[in-house]
Design goal:
This protein is of the alpha+beta class. The chain has 2 domains: about 130 residues, Beta Polymerase, domain 2; about 120 residues, Four Helix Bundle (Hemerythrin (Met), subunit A) (Up-down Bundle). The chain contains 11 helices and 6 strands. α6 packs parallel to α11.
Length: about 270
Amino acid sequence: MHPILLESLKRLQEYYAQDERCLGMFLSGSIGAGTTDEWSDVDADAVFRDEEYSTIKAEIRAVCEALCGPLLVWLPEGESEDNVNYAFLFEAGGRSHLFDFAVCRERYIRNAPWLRPQRILFDRTGLLAKAMQRTPVPCFNPTDLLHQINIYYVYAYLSGKYFRRGDVYKMMYVQQVIFQAHLRVLNAFYPNAEWNWWARDIHALSPEQQTELLVYFGSNQCQTIAGALQNEMNLFSRDAQAACKRYALRYPVELERDVREHFTLMGLTTQDNY
């Protein structure tokens, strides 16, 4: 990690450690996990007393600019009543640097059983230490499995007509949807893994599985996407059937058959895998 980012983090930590409205700070992402490299950015989180949260939000941009450097971009992300992440680019040392600073109310930490701080910087009341001891909450819900399978096949079905129309953009859109549905089905085999950002979640899979899933990427031609779709569906069918078996759910074999028949009508051919 760039030294300027570490220096900026230290200044923010020292600033809020002196502010009684801030109950604690912790790190997440690669810096929280201790896996940073020279390209890493900072992911820091701060918890504030419930009644002070609105005031803090009104101040925080000016604080970050004063302690880090001139802001080039200030981007609130995922804002809700109790938390928000500020992604900002600032200029220092002749270049720009990226910092993610999430702030939340105390009640957000208390009411988020899935949240477990990776590395605590300071903890004024013990709130973060208590959260760190939580038992991981499985993020996989077996009741969602058939829903994801339905999503996959409905959108895969759409590829047929988009292929006939030669609409490469909609075919590429479908690729995004069915890829993510495939990843959510694979969550069935890793129910305790954090599973909300595919670019990280995919690394829970074996190297062979990760390589297989590359079939969803790499083309902007209808014919090539259509060819890839055959392999994609075969892989998905294998994984979805195994996931259903694991949770004693009936795999919708008729749905898969209908979508494959639709592909045949649309001029795509797929190898049956049901």
